[in-house]
Write a structure and sequence with these properties.
Elements (H helix, E strand, L loop, with lengths): L8 H16 L4 E13 L4 E9 L6 E9 L2 H13 L8 E11 L3 E9 L1 H22 L4 E4 L2 E4 L12 E6 L4 H11 L8 E6 L8 H13 L6 E5 L14 H9 L4 E4 L8 H5 L2 E3 L2 H58 L1 H79 L2 H6 L4 E4 L2 E2 L11 E6 L2 E6 L14
Helix pairs in contact: 2-3, 4-8, 5-6
Length: 479
């Protein structure tokens, strides 16, 4: 080993450093790359990251190298963030000016000298324009472009005259959502609102599916909302990339309820803004828009009320003279008619009085006659009825004795007949009564030979036993 030629690693790294310095110390390069593995140390105001290049046709990496920025490089990054509104972070595509450096310990790396904000803005805008073009070409049924304006099914909807029932899609921790609610519910006109919250993540393109699910949840609720409001506070440009998502833009354009956006970015319009019915810059402005919309309707009603009052006064003034003239005509005509018919009325009045007196006198005489008759006739009728009663009483007295005598004769005859037909009288004439089992019988068939019978004669009862029974021809009583 003593015969081998070798150098220390530090010496080799030193040679590499000298070679790199000789080739790259006086030059810098504008490089297009993606940022990954970014970290920022605030106390040192330094950035560490990796630059990568991906194969456009696959996910394979074509190149990777470490990078850093401090001092002037960090100031360039801060300027980039201020201009673009885009944080210098992972997964952004940048055009940066770099110097190649080599360190014996930290190895090969690139130092940022400058960064072009226009390039990043251009990339984002290219992506945005591609999404807009896809929305128009893939959805001609509800998205069209006219000049610089996008005509969607949603922005063609007519807002209800009054907006009260509102679905709000926002983050549960969003200060912008609170600003919206506070502005709306504390409006100076005392308007009442009914707000349903649909909370979701409102930043990060990876949360687009979750955001879309909340839009669908509003639709599936089947509640009759007057509007859907999408709110978010301020933030970096990349925080708003979710609102440039194709699926969200398509859903908003097709949504059957007017969508109002108050996303909170001042510089650009998102695709969601362009697809929505109404866009405002902030959640507070979205609330103010709704209040102003309702106020406009109220003012229209007040104006209509005022017009009704004015029109009523005008009509009254217009017809007041006509009414006054008509009143004068009615009064004068009534006076003329009364004057003209006064004599006739006096004549009719006198004739009425005379005829009334004649009728009363005529009926008075008739009433006196009837009264006299009513006084005399009851006496005559009563007298005649008393005579009739006395005549009847006399007849009763006259015929009473003869009537009683006749009736006594009838009673004597009936009494003689009853005595003649009585059993005692019949028994005295030699007849007998036959009793069988203590019952009178006149049917010979009831009497049986050898049976005991009772024979009742006048003053005598004989008990006998039947020894013989034969037919009798009744010859003893033939007269």
């Amino acid at each position: 080993m003593s015969g081998m030629n070798y150098i220390r690693l530090s010496e080799l790294n030193g040679k590499i450093n000298e070679t790199i310095k000789a080739s790259f110390s006086t030059v810098s390069f504008w490089v297009i790359a993606d940022i990954t593995n970014h970290t920022y140390r605030a106390q040192k105001n330094s950035h560490s990251f990796e630059l990568i290049e991906k194969d456009p046709d696959s996910t394979a990496l074509l190149a990777r190298i470490s990078g850093k920025a401090w001092g002037d490089g960090s100031m360039k990054i801060a300027r980039f963030e201020k201009i673009t509104g885009q944080k210098f972070t992972d997964n952004i595509n940048v055009l940066i000016n770099v110097s190649v450096q080599y360190h014996a310990v930290f190895g090969l790396q690139l130092n940022i000298n400058d960064i072009d904000p226009n390039f990043t803005l251009g990339v984002l805008e290219q992506q945005r324009q591609a999404t807009l073009e896809k929305l128009v070409t893939a959805n001609p049924g509800f998205i069209n472009k006219s000049g610089d304006r996008y005509i969607t099914r949603n922005n063609q909807l007519k807002l209800n005259a009054v907006i009260q029932k509102i679905a709000v899609i926002s983050s549960a921790t969003s200060a912008g959502s609170e600003d919206f609610r506070h502005t709306l519910l504390n409006n100076q006109f005392g308007y009442q609102f009914f707000i349903d919250d649909y909370f979701t993540a409102v930043q990060g393109e990876s949360n687009a599916d979750q955001f879309l699910a909340r839009i669908i949840a509003v639709f599936n609720s089947q509640k009759p909302y007057d509007a859907v409001v999408i709110t978010r506070g301020g933030g970096a440009q990349t925080d708003f990339l979710i609102f440039d998502n194709y699926k969200i833009g398509r859903a908003v354009a097709k949504f059957p309820i007017p969508v109002i956006t108050g996303i909170g970015h001042q510089k650009n319009e998102s695709i969601t803004d362009l697809m929505a019915h109404t866009q405002t810059k902030t959640p507070t402005q979205a609330a103010e828009f709704i209040i102003a919309h309702n106020r406009k309707y109220e003012e229209a009603l007040l104006h209509f009320q005022k017009n009704i009052a004015i029109k009523s006064q005008q009509l009254f003034s217009l017809h007041f003279q006509s009414l006054s003239l008509l009143r004068s005509m009615v009064v004068n005509n009534a006076r003329d008619i009364l004057t003209k018919n006064k004599d006739c009325l006096v004549e009719i009045n006198q004739a009425t009085i005379n005829i009334s007196k004649s009728i009363i006198f005529k009926h008075k005489s008739a009433l006196l006659t009837i009264s006299s008759q009513m006084l005399s006739k009851p006496k005559i009728i009563l007298y005649n009825r008393l005579n009739d009663i006395q005549h009847v009483v006399g007849n009763i007295k006259t015929f009473k004795t003869q009537y009683l005598k006749n009736k006594n004769g009838y009673l004597g005859h009936f009494s003689a007949v009853i005595k003649m037909m009585s059993p005692d009288n019949i028994l005295n004439k030699g007849f007998a009564i036959v009793k069988r089992n203590n019952k009178i019988t006149s049917n010979p068939d009831d009497v049986v030979v050898g049976e005991d019978i009772d024979i009742i004669l006048s003053h005598t009862q004989i008990k006998s036993t039947v020894k013989q029974k034969s037919k009798y021809d009744g010859s003893d009583f033939n007269l």
